[in-house]
Inverse folding.
């Protein structure tokens, strides 16, 4: 049933949100395209589903405002910040690797542009759960799936102010969980948390306030109903 709804919602999303070419939507069906290749084009990526696809866990109004206003503003501001600079044609991964020298506009808006792309893609209904490989790595790193969730939830709940919770792969290929402030992410040279992002959760108030108000913990609990594990599994495999 969940799977059927997901397909239906994706279908409905086509007219509303799918764009053409090197878009976020296309990369869902073409897993050989990496996020970085998409981002390098400096196009604002399509949302890979309709605004109401994650109801009731994430409501359509929040999705519309979050994607079409917040995310789009980060994108526009990033494009303006890099225009005419040597960073203009660099993939975000490279920009983040020396972002400490690039200034706050590029750090904040580049992070906002990138983080939301990862976030939209790791949301969706009807995925089958962590792969055998990822499950085994999660058990090894955290003891159990439940312990992993608890650790991730705590990262999101205890992030003071605005930020993100992450599951990421460290340079020595170990799974880790942490949060970052504002629009920072584990690819940034200035971040104390470093690695390849696998799963992320936006804990800015704009991500949940319309539906959950001050109850961030309820939003984090609801998030687990709409994690697109197929995408997390794909990112894990690619990062290894
Ligand atoms: Mn956000």
């Amino acid at each position: 049933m969940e799977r059927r709804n997901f397909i239906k919602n994706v279908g409905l999303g086509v007219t509303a949100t799918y764009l053409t070419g090197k878009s976020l939507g296309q990369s869902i069906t073409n897993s050989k395209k990496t996020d970085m290749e998409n981002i390098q084009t400096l196009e604002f990526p399509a949302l890979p589903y309709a605004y109401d696809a994650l109801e009731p866990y994430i409501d359509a109004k929040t999705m519309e405002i979050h994607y079409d206003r917040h995310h789009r503003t980060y994108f526009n501001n990033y494009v303006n910040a890099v225009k005419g600079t040597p960073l203009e044609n660099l993939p975000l991964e490279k920009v983040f690797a020396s972002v400490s020298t690039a200034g706050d506009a590029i750090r904040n808006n580049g992070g906002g542009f990138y983080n939301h792309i990862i976030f939209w893609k790791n949301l969706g209904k009807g995925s089958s759960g962590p792969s055998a490989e990822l499950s085994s790595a999660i058990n090894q790193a955290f003891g159990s799936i439940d312990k992993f969730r608890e650790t991730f939830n705590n990262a999101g709940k205890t992030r003071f102010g605005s930020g993100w919770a992450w599951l990421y792969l460290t340079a020595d290929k170990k799974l880790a969980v942490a949060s970052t402030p504002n629009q920072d992410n584990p690819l940034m040279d200035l971040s104390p948390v470093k690695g390849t992002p696998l799963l992320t959760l936006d804990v800015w108030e704009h991500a949940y306030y319309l539906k959950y108000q001050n109850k961030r913990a309820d939003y984090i609990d609801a998030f687990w109903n709409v994690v697109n594990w197929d995408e997390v599994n794909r990112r894990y495999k690619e990062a290894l």
Summary: Strands lie at 163-169, 175-181, 196-202. Residues 132-239 form a domain with the minor pseudopilin epsh fold fold (CATH 3.55.40.20). Residues 1-33 have pLDDT under 50 and may be disordered.
